[in-house]
Amino acid sequence: MLAGTLAAGLFGLDTRITAAHQAFALGGALLLVAAAGTRRPASSLQARRRLPRHATVGQPCRYRLRVVNAGRRSARDLDICERLPDPRPDLASFLASRAPVEAGVNPVERLFGYARWEWLVRRARRAEPQRPVPLADIPPGGSIELQMTMTPLRRGWLRLDALIAARSDVLGLMRRETPVDGGDRVLVLPRRYPLRPLPPPGRRRLQPGGVSRASTVGESQEFIGLRDYLPGDSPRHIHWAAWARCGEPVVKEYQDEYFSRQALVLDSFIGDDGAREAAFECAVSVAASLVEPLTATAGAQDRLLDLIFVADHAHAITGGRGVLSTDVLLELLACLVPKRCEDFSPLSQTVIAQTAQLSACLCVLLTWDPPRQALVARMRAFGVPVTVLLLQQRTDAALGPDPMTNGARLLLVDPADPAPALASL
Fold first, then answer.
1. Closest CA to 216 of 313, 307, 318
2. Are residues 364 and 389 in the same domain?
């Protein structure tokens, strides 16, 4: 309508030759009516979200929104929607990046860079917001509550900058948007795939210090009772209250604990290969899918899970059986960023240091090179059952020598569709 009105005004300057000035007058009148209908902004609204603790990639996130009219007039004919961070890249990011899709486009398309721009915008979009939701009339000082929905597209912290309250005119030509203050954020957990119950990880092993040692620093073992003092007992174990009651030295007796402890090793090294970044995101989802069956199922009360990965440095986080909950492990995976270096030794050394206490190990790897093969072979030499989930398509290059022996498993997981491989685990 605006373009047609301007064109009619340009061609209708001479009213004796053409009647385009009539179209200009009609278009101008309609635009004035539309402008009058959107003149008043919705600046008197205040909003507050009630977000859940977590959202999940690919699943709708529903939350409540309370809108308050703090003005002196009724708020009418409004709708509201979320304003998410701008996904468009800056110039430096655009010039420094290379999209995987660029290899398959012609030189002209590569020169203009639209394929790269589209790939960067799609990768930077963190959520798909709901379409604008109409608001009922809100009297002065009144409030309404409604349900909002959005679908997260990427894991990590999702920042909600503000809400947009908008008013459209009756002709549908203009729409006036007014930001409503109300910044917030929600943690988006990785996508998880359904798994059948996993078998026990293997025989139990001695855990020096017991469960308390898994979560704290110290040498405390499992307390089983009191007994009379014997020569050679440590004075630190004397139970002074019992000694005061019975008049004879009494010491606390402990025993070592044996239980199952399984490691989940996540490979976060992608190097300079941008194509492996998508495989890393799939690896995080695979690891998140394994965390819950290994820590929160009915038969996992006597198990511990060591989540081993490299972020700023190597980490071995223990969960299960009164240590850390499944939610904490998933939150760690949600915030994990890939490593651009190729030095696999920090992860390998951390895993080997835990080997003596492990009943089994699950490795989620991005490639199958000599350092990763050596890690698996060394764990097998310690007698630890190892299952490797390799994020690689069957049509990729050959895997090379396979050190998996004595019942160990090597499963290929397609990064585009990991569900079939996880179902066979």
1. 318
2. yes
Q: What is the end-to-end Cα distance of the chain in Å, rounded?
A: 60
Q: Over the stretch 209-221, which tens digit does the pLDDT of each residue have? A: 444 444 443 334 5
Partnered with residue 206 across adjacent β-strands are 258
pLDDT tens digits for 148-179?
999 999 999 999 888 999 988 888 899 888 88
Q: Tell me the DSSP string of 58-77.
A: TS-EEEEEEEEE-SSS-B-S
**CATH, residue 140:** 2.60.40.10
- Residues pairing with 410 in the sheet: 388
Angle at 283 (CA atoms; ends 357, 408), nearest 5 degrees:
45
303: three-class secondary structure by DSSP? strand
Contact 386, 264 (CB under 8 A): no
Cβ contacts of residue 226 below 8 Å, gap of 6+?
Answer: 239, 242, 250, 251, 252, 253
pTM score, two decimals?
Answer: 0.77
Extended strands (E) in 169-245? 175-189, 205-207, 222-228
Q: Is 50 helix (H, G, I), strand (E, B) or coil?
A: strand
Q: What is the distance between the alpha carbons of residues 364 and 387, in angstroms, rounded to a whole number?
A: 9
In a domain, 275, yes or no: yes
Rounded-to-integer distance, Cα 79 and Cα 176, Å? 11
Short-list 319, 37, 342, CA closest to 171: 37
Same domain, 274 and 149: no
Q: How many domains does the chain have?
A: 3
